[in-house]
């Protein structure tokens, strides 16, 4: 049976076909069925640690070894999983529609791997595969660092009972809250260091809470929005839409006249400003629903 009610599907597709300027906001739920856990809700724990508590400069300053183990694990997982049908369907739509812009909060690299045109993809929260110096005085940065593990000390614990080290990602239901796996202490000297200043620790090139989003990315988005007062459609896919300024783009799009289509497993996770009569909520797995909607 079709996952999406026929009448809703038709009204959405009719609007999509007429839409010229389209924005999409992506979140962790898009990559969930590829096997990557989300931040909030059941999946949002990594070895008893709340994932959102690890995504802060304070956590890194306090315990860089712990935070690096979290990110090393995430880099490893992101490299092992594959983009799903929704990543591909979005990449295809982005190619097809001239005035299309994707704002992704995801750092997993799956949209680029699905062939999403790079000029139409803005990474709001950086990438797991960007690395930069953590010292304020040093501007060292690298992108596309896919070395896994980035340093030998960050090799994942070799525990056969740990599904995160098992070779097959069976069921893709990762027990990331596994309390039984002991994290090891990593000596400061064994963490990744900056090759430029030789002083600072390297850190993942992602945006943590309290940090500014990349200025150039924000400028590109502002320019795109300012090109025309009208946006036809805003797609909000697999995000709790609670983290700002990312979530604020939904309101910007609405103010430009956009109708909003939300694709989410959880009917509670609608944008904070609510849904209008002209908007759509499609409940379910983005990996199934997005390809059907964008057909
Ligand atoms: C499915 C599914 C399936 C599951 N199919 N769906 C205004 C008001 C209040 C607070 C603030 C504000 N402005 C700023 C703030 C502070 C803060 C903030 O927003 N806090 C709120 C939480 C209250 N924002 C910031 O700090 C930002 N910086 C900033 O504002 O700087 C100001 C500044 C200016 C100048 C100088 C200095 C500072 C930065 C925010 C950075 C967020 N970073 C993270 C970590 C990135 C690195 C990493 O990955 O580790 O980004 S936090 C985390 O949340 C990550 C995500 O991108 C982001 C959003 O999460 P997302 O993607 O929505 O995931 P979930 O888990 O929340 O939701 C998943 C959804 O999928 C759910 O809805 C599920 O139902 C659904 N789902 N399976 C479809 N199969």
UniProtKB/TrEMBL annotation:
Cofactor(s) this protein cannot do without: Zn(2+)
GO CC annotations on file: mitochondrion; nucleus
Residue sites binding NAD(+) per the record: 27-46, 105-108, 238-240, 286
Binding, Zn(2+): 133, 138, 194, 197
Enzyme Commission code(s) on record: 2.3.1.-
Cofactor note text: Binds 1 zinc ion per subunit.
Protein name (database record): NAD-dependent protein deacylase
